[in-house]
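Task: sequence in, structure out. Protein: Omega-amidase YafV.
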Amino acid sequence: MNKLTITLIQTELHWHNPEANRSHFATLIKDIKTSTDVIILPEMFTTGFTMATVENAEPESGETLHWMQQQATQNKAVITGSLIIEQHGHFYNRMYWVEPNGDFQSYDKKHLFTYADEHHHFTAGRERLIIEYKGWRICPLICYDLRFPVWSRNDVDFDLLIYIANWPAARREAWQSLLKARAIENMAYVAGVNRIGSDGNDLKYAGDSTVYNAIGEPMSAPDRQTPFVKTLTLCNDTLQQQRSHFGFLNDRDNFILK
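Result:
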């Protein structure tokens, strides 16, 4: 498939209230007027970014995953976003990719945010996930992963990087700059979806959700502190033409992640 339509949902989150958040997102998803292939929700979209793992974790096949499967089926679109999962006594910041037929894949956040003690409450993931969907190769990552270009490196020929986040407003310049940098250095589309509003720790979030093309041009203006549901169409022909014309990826350094 040459084109992929993605929908970014930027909104406030209800603190530690999965039921309210699921209901809120169900309403926003229902109101999407344009046909779309992928609907992207923020990091920890059921709770906000919290270290209260015991109180908020769900099992692997819990209520929110079932909700995502229902939403994907009803809307004939992929639903992706992360939540707190408990598995074998460990807690993970897990991003689910749920397809309309109910099939799903998951990615566990690799880089835990030590500044907020995330590493004391969660177990880090070990592997990247490359999803093949409708002729596209997609790499989903989470928030703090954005700061580490080696983990985001396009050594597997992906077409689209997706970053979901609860990225504080105090560091919004880094968010915008790093999204753009990841697009340029990897010659790939980059979609960043961040929340807005304040959380239970009084941290403020600016949003600035957007998509960059492979040469670092924004496909939509980042909207600060504005709730929105925005749908954009990506073109693989354009991406391959840009890669063929510039050829930067042919000169990349080879290395092995350990």
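Residues 2 and 236 are 5 Å apart (CA to CA).
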